[in-house]
Amino acid sequence: MILPIVAYGDPVLRKISTEIDEDYEGLDTLISNMWETMYNASGVGLAAPQIGLAIRLFLVDTSPFADDEELSAEERKQLEGFKRVFINAKILEETGNSWAFNEGCLSIPDIREDITRLDTITLRYQDENFVEHTETFDGLLARVIQHEYDHIEGILFTDKVSSLKKRLLKGKLSNISKGKIQVDYRMRFPLLKKGR
């Protein structure tokens, strides 16, 4: 089932999410719905807060990036077929070089900004079967995971832009929260007046 994606301005996007366990009701269905929702919106990642749930769950499928001719063959291979569920994730370490990349977000449509992040992360998480993993990711893969991880920490990519950029984006962000935007996927707008 395709779920509405929560738009910028909804308080759930600012909450630090809580951990879940294998008894979380309807988890398999939720994960299935999240995949369907993400693919319907042409996303490469989706976090539970983006569908209104403040739980530590996000998923990533970087396959669309594997077609990028600007990436090396090794990078494309790493991204191709990378599809994973992350539950109760915790970044243990961020290292490497800072690099900027143009990011966007399904909850903040039509806004893209260059965001600087470190290029390597070590992450502890559980998969959909609650098997624990500790892995190191780098490059574009690390970036997508960092972006989704920020969601479960109540952080949005627009928080990472300069003060000047924030001021310039203020009107656009306000319009998104009011539903004054055209998107081709289902969204839930926090400030949309009833009956409009």
From TrEMBL:
**Per the similarity annotation, which family is this?**
Belongs to the polypeptide deformylase family.
- Binding residue positions for Fe cation: 105, 147, 151
Q: Which InterPro entries match?
A: Peptide_deformylase (IPR023635), Peptide_deformylase_sf (IPR036821)
The yes or no answer to whether the keyword Transmembrane is present is: no
Q: PANTHER family of this UniProt entry?
A: PEPTIDE DEFORMYLASE (PTHR10458)
Q: Which domain of life is it from?
A: Bacteria
Necessary cofactors: Fe(2+)
Give the cofactor note.
Answer: Binds 1 Fe(2+) ion.
**Whose protein is this, by species?**
Muriicola marianensis
* Gene3D superfamilies tied to this protein: Peptide deformylase
Where, by residue number, is the active site? Answer: 148
The protein's matches in SUPFAM superfamilies, at most eight in alphabetical order, are given as: Peptide deformylase
- Sum up the protein's function in the record's words: Removes the formyl group from the N-terminal Met of newly synthesized proteins. Requires at least a dipeptide for an efficient rate of reaction. N-terminal L-methionine is a prerequisite for activity but the enzyme has broad specificity at other positions.
- Name the chain's protein: Peptide deformylase
Task: Specify whether Cytoplasm is a keyword of the entry.
Answer: no
Q: Which UniProt keywords apply?
A: Hydrolase, Iron, Metal-binding, Protein biosynthesis
Q: What class of enzyme is it?
A: hydrolase
- Reactions the enzyme catalyzes: N-terminal N-formyl-L-methionyl-[peptide] + H2O = N-terminal L-methionyl-[peptide] + formate
NCBIfam families reported in the protein's UniProt record: pept_deformyl, PRK00150.1-3
Q: EC number(s)?
A: 3.5.1.88
